[in-house]
User: Fold (6-4)DNA photolyase from Capsicum annuum.
Amino acid sequence: MAACGSNSLMWFRKGLRLHDNPALEYAAKGSKFLYPVFVIDPHYMEPDPTAFSTGSSKSGLNRIQFLLESLVDLDLSLKKLGSRLLVLKGDPGDVLIRCLKEWSIGKLCFEYDTELYYQALDEKVKTYASVTGVEIFSPVSHTLYNPADIIQKNGRSPPLSYQSFLKLAGQPSWASTPLSTAISSLPPIGNTGSFALSGVPTVRELGYGDLAEDERTPFKGGESEALKRLKESIANKEWIANFEKPKGDPSAFLKPATTVLSPYLKFGCLSSRYFYQCIQDIQKSVKKHTSPPVSLLGQLLWRDFFYTVAFGTPNFDQMKGNRICKQIPWKNDDELLAAWRDSRTGFPWIDAIMTQLRKWGWMHHLARHSVACFLTRGDLFVHWEKGRDVFERLLIDSDWAINNGNWLWLSCSSFFYQYNRIYSPISFGKKYDPAGNYIRHFLPVLKDMPKEYIYEPWTAPISVQRKAKCIIGLDYPKPVVSHDSASKECRMRLGEAYALNKKLNGLVSEEDLNNLRRKAGNESTILDSVSRNKKQKLFD
Assistant:
């Protein structure tokens, strides 16, 4: 076996690409042998029969499939350079330490990751490597900026508004230098010793059955697919230059109204830095273009904003102990949660979006806004953490920092506090798709419902329901709440919670929250009683 210093290990986790991969370039430099490794982590991949959808304890099968496709693509790209992906299985920390020992590795390279799980894992591997004299190279290339640098610039705390983030961030240091977009050759793989190596497993080999055709995401994983989608997106210079979020049509599904590059950015099949430079080149070539926060470049900056706040905020992924999160007496109602999750709320716009999520693992950002608002502050008043868990499992682009950041935002727990502004589960979708084609596609039970009733089928006369072969309460559920009264109650509860947070300077105890819950329960009972009395008088 070669001497210690000339063997390198490239540890792939995210960053599943060859273009703009500084860790891979450094691993290849001056090395006699290079071992490209991916570890199948049982924690992430093993089937969990108790989960509410097919998949592991951490992820639905669509995202696992997307990851496997990304690994197959990476393996093919490595093979073209005379290498291949070494797929190992087990606890990644333990497996890596064994690799370092058995293969006499002198240089360990991997992309830096800000997620809590990877921070703990990397610490374990780094500790072993430093004791044994292995050189470590872990560059920041998953984001545009190093979140730690921005936090340092801001007096060791993360900026909590997008505008303050932009001021601190400035132009990325690498933005004016061409990025390396191709690797011409790699060192060969050395002796792999006693390791049980396999190719990239299929979902069946991991212990899953195949997904039904209509339950499978239409988006295929991998760097090749990412670069193809990018090329198609940037070919339309005018669309890129005029991109304006939050505009766009959340009901467009045959041709989505966005780039659908988010899952490729999540797994690092596409470099966010390369995407940034492509957009920048287009903006230089056109007379006028939109600007952050609404432009396409602005979307990449939002991504970095959430990464930075998440990295610098302890307990970012929960309400308790999270200093930037309002303490709110959310309901713990598993029945309402299940109705929302399983497309049984009785509001077709909401149920169609949740069906698209379950089947495709993706939906438009405004569709995400609609269902997140409905579950939390708009109608059901269920805890944002519960909705976050469902998104985290089912989205193929689920990203720890962005998913938590968006749920904090959309539940008015942090960043955005105008809780009186609610997405209507009826009129919001109707604005984009008055005929209800999106609903008809994802909820075929309603396909024959006339367009006057497609967003509120419970208002259709029974004769219309019979003709549409969809009886409300039998073939499709009745609404779980009355939107008007539920949204009023949500506003009232949030108003009380905000007042208490202000009074106690955010130091709200569990007892304080329970007191608010009891008070809300009493008020709700009184309101129900008043409502019943009014109805009674109508019939007397």
Observations:
- The longest helix spans residues 510-539.
- Residues 532-540 have pLDDT under 50 and may be disordered.
- The domain at 334-508 is CATH 1.10.579.10 (DNA Cyclobutane Dipyrimidine Photolyase, subunit A; domain 3).
- The chain has three domains: 1-141, 143-181+223-312, 334-508.
